[in-house]
Amino acid sequence: DVQLVESGGGLVRPGGSLRLSCAASGFTFSTAWMSWVRQAPGKGLEHVARIKSKNDGGTADYAAPVNGRFTISRDDSRNMLHLQMNSLKSEDTALYYCTTLCSGGGQCDFWGQGNLVTVSS
Amino acid sequence: DIQMTQSPSTLSASVGDRVTITCRASQSISSWLAWYQQKPGKAPKLLIYRASSLESGVPSRFSGSGSGTEFTLTISSQQPDDSATYYCQQYNNFPYTFGQGTKLEIK
Question: Which residue, of A6, A44, B53, B91, is most buried by count of CB atoms within 10 Å of its CB?
């Protein structure tokens, strides 16, 4: 069975840092492009970061609201995805999903259960 | 970023009704459009990809159409289990932007 299990969320003060992790199993992680999608409480979905597979260059992309503050990385030897979040703001408060975001079909679209990050003083 | 606009924001329909949700992109995305279903406390689930292709395992009462900038999701005969929020999403350009969501309720 496919599993994406996020960890590392919690309460942090504005300006602080947090590192989210996602443990993947049940599919070939090394060939998957991986993303973080967040959802603020009661709001819609926002794609914030993506990292390509190493075969496809391994490059990372960031949405404008997090560019320069967040860093996505992967460890294919451990099937792990990470999101380092620095200079956190109250508007970063959200449930963060680890996902393959395989929107093109083919039964490769997998999501974690989400991990809550709360930025508040 | 490409903006995605859905209508309506909320929809109330009876069991057996035909339901249609519309999604508009701020620029042409060809057919790079997906529809997701999200139930409370759960992760989104892919229903439709490439505007009109049904993901494996999704009931055939769900269908999608459109290309360019105008798209629709149709449920041919709404069932109680379809009560959820539906999002369109473009995957033509990064970031893969979502519509604001349509909350579908059973009347």
Answer: A6
Structure-block tokens of residue A59: 């490059």
Give the span between the Cα atoms of B2 and A17, in whole angstroms: 29
A44: distance to nearest CA of chain B, Å?
Answer: 5
Taking a C-beta distance cutoff of 8 angstroms, is the pair A20, A88 a contact? no
Strand order in the sheet with B70-75: B4-7, B19-25, B70-75, B62-67
Q: Is the pLDDT of residue A105 over 90?
A: no
CA dist B44 and A96 (Å) reads: 12
Mutation target among A103, A109, A110 for the B interface, most CBs of B within 10 A: A103
**pLDDT single digits (tens) A2-45:** 999 999 999 999 999 999 999 999 999 999 999 999 999 999 99
Residue A103, pLDDT > 90, answer no
Q: What are phi and psi of A85, to 5 degrees?
A: -115, 115
Nearest residue of chain B to residue A115 (CA atoms): B43
**Contact yes or no for B95 and A112 at CB 8 A:** no
- Residues whose CB falls within 8 Å of the CB of residue B41, separated by 6 or more in sequence, listed in order: none
Distance from CA of A107 to the nearest CA of B (A): 7
SS3 A38: strand
* Residue A73 contacts residue A82 (beta carbons within 8 Å): yes
